[in-house]
């Protein structure tokens, strides 16, 4: 008789929560897999600013509420994503009627949005991504250009955390970013977080998005990033994990299914990543995958439009891949 593999949530019950990003559609289509394997949910899109307050004072919580209801019904916890971002944010937040918003008006919009959203969503949330992707990928500046920065100034990041803490004193507040393990950006993120903490900003944790590939980033760079962020006294969460089978810059579109070599390399990478997470589980309290399976994931269209990718632990039929087997089969 074939030995039954542990589920992700059972295999890691002594280490950290294992979460997944979901939408109303994936809950309906893949709900059985999600119930079976995960104990934490993140809304992939429907809690972002343009989704919950598309017009000032008009809140559209229905789709997000459905995800919260699913979590409660299945004894799951939730990560909130995301309160402030330069993308997927409605234009009205940066305006005062027909004219550009002043600093005071933009801060008012940010504060009121955060208070409304965090007041609506309380249980069973254990963390919120307060602000997302504010660090520049290149150049001398630490912060990227964005409407928030242009209108408010560099202290908009500090203000976002202060508003979030006022709105909910009990939930953990996170900064979230990608390329978080690349040395140049890692050091910028560290510098920003240390400066904010030195100013007394209420930040509880760092979210490592972990959109990784078969070759990049290196394990040494991931380890260095974990240790550097943890040295600030922050709790870490892996927030948006997937392992693309295409290297960045690879534009090929000829594959209708992944090669055996891709799947073996992906399994080796997932195994190594989760081994590292277990090693640092004193600092990491949740690991969230950015889709339940290869049936649907955002990399199907990014960065090559219309190209299929196979970055998850379960295949297009929601069956466990070798990557999954390696992740749950450890001693």
Automatic annotation (TrEMBL):
<feature type="domain" description="GH10">
    <location>
        <begin position="2"/>
        <end position="330"/>
    </location>
</feature>
<dbReference type="InterPro" id="IPR044846">
    <property type="entry name" value="GH10"/>
</dbReference>
<dbReference type="Pfam" id="PF00331">
    <property type="entry name" value="Glyco_hydro_10"/>
</dbReference>
<protein>
    <recommendedName>
        <fullName>Beta-xylanase</fullName>
        <ecNumber>3.2.1.8</ecNumber>
    </recommendedName>
</protein>
<keyword id="KW-0326">Glycosidase</keyword>
<dbReference type="GO" id="GO:0045493">
    <property type="term" value="P:xylan catabolic process"/>
</dbReference>
<keyword id="KW-0378">Hydrolase</keyword>
<dbReference type="GO" id="GO:0031176">
    <property type="term" value="F:endo-1,4-beta-xylanase activity"/>
</dbReference>
<keyword id="KW-0624">Polysaccharide degradation</keyword>
<keyword id="KW-0858">Xylan degradation</keyword>
<comment type="similarity">
    <text>Belongs to the glycosyl hydrolase 10 (cellulase F) family.</text>
</comment>
<dbReference type="InterPro" id="IPR017853">
    <property type="entry name" value="GH"/>
</dbReference>
<dbReference type="InterPro" id="IPR001000">
    <property type="entry name" value="GH10_dom"/>
</dbReference>
<keyword id="KW-0119">Carbohydrate metabolism</keyword>
């Amino acid at each position: 008789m074939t030995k039954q593999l542990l589920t992700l949530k059972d295999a890691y019950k002594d280490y950290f929560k294992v979460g997944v990003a979901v939408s109303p559609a994936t809950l309906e289509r893949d709900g059985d897999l999600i119930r079976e394997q995960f104990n934490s949910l993140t809304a992939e899109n429907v809690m972002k600013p343009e989704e919950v307050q598309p017009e000032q004072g008009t809140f559209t919580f229905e789709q997000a509420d459905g995800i919260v209801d699913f979590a409660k019904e299945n004894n799951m916890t939730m990560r909130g994503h995301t309160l402030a971002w330069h993308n997927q944010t409605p234009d009205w937040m940066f305006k005062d009627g027909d004219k550009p918003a002043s600093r005071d008006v933009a801060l008012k919009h940010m504060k009121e949005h955060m208070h409304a959203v965090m007041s609506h969503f309380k249980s069973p949330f254990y963390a919120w991504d307060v602000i997302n992707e504010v660090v520049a990928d290149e150049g001398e500046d630490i912060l990227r250009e964005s409407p928030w920065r242009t209108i408010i100034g560099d202290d908009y990041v500090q203000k976002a955390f202060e508003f979030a803490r006022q709105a909910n004193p009990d939930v953990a507040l996170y900064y979230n970013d990608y390329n978080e393990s690349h040395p140049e950006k890692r050091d910028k993120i560290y510098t920003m977080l240390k400066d904010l903490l030195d100013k007394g900003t209420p930040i509880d944790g760092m979210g490592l998005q972990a959109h990784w590939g078969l070759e990049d980033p290196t394990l040494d760079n991931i380890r260095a990033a974990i240790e550097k962020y943890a040295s600030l006294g922050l709790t870490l969460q892996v927030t948006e994990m997937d392992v693309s089978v295409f290297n960045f810059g690879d534009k090929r579109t000829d594959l209708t299914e992944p090669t055996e070599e891709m799947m073996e390399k992906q399994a080796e990478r997932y195994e190594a990543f989760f081994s590292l997470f277990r090693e640092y589980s004193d600092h990491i309290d949740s690991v969230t995958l950015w889709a339940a399976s290869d049936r649907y994931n955002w990399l199907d269209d990014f960065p090559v439009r219309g190209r299929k990718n196979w970055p998850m632990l379960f295949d297009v039929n929601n069956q466990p891949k070798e990557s999954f087997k390696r992740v749950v089969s450890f001693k």
